[in-house]
Each structure stands twice: as C-alpha cells, then as structure tokens.
Amino acid sequence: MFKPPGVKDKQFAVLGLGRTGLATCHALKRGGATVLPWDEAEHSRESARRQNIELVDITRERIWEENRISRLIVSPGIPHLYPEPHPIIRMALNRGIPVDNDIGLFFHFHEHFKQSKPEGEIPKIVAVTGTNGKSTTAALINHVLQSHGYKSALAGNIGIAVLGLENLEELTHIILEVSSYQSEAASRLNPDVAIFLNLDEDHLDRHEGMGGYFAAKRRLFDGDNLELAIIGVDEPEGEFLGNNIVSRGQGTRLAIISNDKSKKIPHYGMIGSNKTLTEFADGKVIGTYSMGNNPGLLGNHNLQNAAAAYFACCHLNVPVEKVIDYFNRFDGLPHRSQVVAKKNGVIYINDSKATNVKSTTRALESHQRIHWIAGGLAKEGGIKTLGKSLNNVKHAYFFGHSAKNFALELGQVPHSVFLNLPEAIGAASTNARAGDTVLLAPAAASFDQYRDFEERGFHFISEVNKIT
Question: Quick one: fold of 338-467?
C-alpha cells in the first residue's frame, strides 16, 4: 500500500468523507499522520465508522485551538470560495491554515518521489480537464497504455480517488481526470501532460462566472514540469490558452485539437471530423486516420477526445499505428453515447452524462431522426441555445422537474411532456420507426429524481431492456 512521504507526526483535518475524503484519511494514516476527519452528513459519518475511522467534530472552535493542524483537506463538492466559503474552511483561513485537496496532496507527494527515486521509476502523470469529454478521454488514454503493456491507472474524478491507488509504486502512468472543483482548490498541479478539451457554461455558481471557471481549469498548465500541452481550440478560451503557452517559450510542446474542418493549424495539431483524424505539422497534412464506425467513439465530439488521446499516447512512446489500432478496440464508457439496444431498426442510445447544453448539442449532432428524451433539473440558462442541432429531432419527450420549462423554451419542436423517464421511453419507443434513434440526452442534472446521472442512465437501460 502507498505510504505518503513527509506527513509523519503532522495533523490533518479532513472535511468531507465521500470517496476522496475516505481515501485521504487512510493514506495519511498509513504515512503516520494524525487525522481529524469530519462530515456533516450522518450517513457519511456512519460509513467512515464502518471503516474504523475515528471522527473529530472540527466544527467546534476548541478543536482548532487545542491541535496543531498543518492543513485542511476538503472534498471537491465543498465550496471553498464561491458562492461563499464553507464555515469550516473559514475557520482554517482565519487561522492561516492552508486549505488543500487530495489532488494537491498527491502532487506534493509526487515531488517527494522525484527527489528520492530514479527518473524511470516515477510514474508519468497525464491530467485531463474540460467541461465535456474528460472521462472518455482519460479512459481512452488508459485503454491505449494498458493495451500496449504499460501499468497505468485511472484516478481523480474517474476511477478511484488518487490517494486510494494501492499499487502506486508499480505504476508507469497515472491518468487523472481533474474537475474544475479539484483544480481550483489544489495547492499544487504539476502533470507531465495536460489536456484542456473545451469550455462551456457549467458550475458557474462555484466559480463566480465563466472567467473563474476557466481560471480554475487553466491552472493545470501552470506547472514547471509540463512536457506537452494538448489544447482544444474551438472556444476562445482554448485559443487564448494555446497562444499563452507558445508565448511562454519554456520548452513545453503544444498540440492543438479541433472539430472544425476549417480551422487553421499553424504548427502542430489535429482535426477530428467525419470519422477521420487529420494530423497537421507546420500547416501541412502529415497523416489521416480513419476511425470507421467504432461504437465507443461515436460523433465528432469523440473524435476530439480521440485526438487528445492520440497526442498524449504518442508522446508516451506508443507507436502511431498501435494507437489507432487500440482506438478501434475501445468500447466506450457507460452513459456516454452508449448503444443500449437495437430493435426493429431502432437504435436506443444512453447519453445520460449529457447534462448541459454543449454535451447535448454534440449528442444531437451525432445522430439523425431522433426521438429525444430530455429533462431533469435544468441548469442555469436552460436549453434555448441548442440551435441547429434540433433539426435532427423528430419528436422530443420531456420529463421530470423542468419538463414544462423545456417545452416552453423549445415550443417549435414537436414534443410531449411526461412525469418520469419510463413514460417518456414508452412513448418514444411506440413512435419510433426503422432508421430512427431513441436518444436519452437529458440536458439537465439528475437530482430531481435520481442520485446521479449514472443511476438515471441505468434506469434508462433497464426500461429499454424491458421493451426490447
């Protein structure tokens, strides 16, 4: 088991005892630290007790006065700045105690490894961020590396918490999916390869707008160890970030990626469009790679994810022809353009992870003759900006908390309103004909009726299986 260096006999307060918080507690204890863990939810505290974690109520002022707490570690879901700092975070800030998270701690530990081990024994770190596509890109990179015989692992916002990696010393690569919540709070971010896929409106309450959201994500590129930066340039923020990296002139190699066939690639990059990856160097095409009809990478948006994974894997010494071969063996992830069933010429697709306008737009653009199932708890701004992608919709089936609002916003689209997902699926299945697609792309959060997007996706799969 991994034992964190440099924490022996130090005290750490841990706020939030979900997946990352519990892994942090166990890791710090293995390293010889004293841990003061707490969660405001009783079910989380009970879960911690079952894992023999002794709780300390750090909401009490005297705990901070009686102990020499060196750092407060917070879980991603706990606001540390906007809309306002959590009261316990405020306690730490008032006492000058650093606030960090498991990602920041991990990079501190990684620096220790660099100083104490030969370079060949230190795992390379690939960090992936962006509003949409993070999980698919991270999983695709991991798939390629493992297929090629490397010992790699997924961690962070996907897979297991990074401090829960049991065989850290044996790994050759760690692929981190990093959310904006994680990158904003981490005290240190220093990957070898960093990927910025895209940016769209999401989580704006936690970042006080798009500027704060972008600032959180671009922090991945501030480290002094960065060998390769892979930047999606289909939004102004990506173009700015790519240009900024070139301007630094610190030896970081830049690869840009896009879905726009008309995009100019002045130096090094790739365009993913029409089932093809086109590689450029100095403005000239140097390679084209057919992605065929791989069901794990449906749609242009997944070609951008593949382009990012391509550059990362080539940089990590996987031969080009092998990268493309491994791509075509990738099954994709659940709840992301997932083909669930085919019956009577109708395809049923689960894209429950499409929780915002941009990801829903990409889902709608990837198919024709769509019976679109959407709804849940609408995000800020609604769905008015879906635009031309709605041309592919034959009929919309809105369900859940925001169903009536969706109907008002998109009244020009033929639609029906339902209380719940099973009703919507039943109607869509009845109306669909051979050559049609029944697509769950909710354009909303799931919390009105489900624990998370995964539970919603599994419910869709279950209901479709009953029909087919």
Answer: Protein-Tyrosine Phosphatase; Chain A (3.90.190)
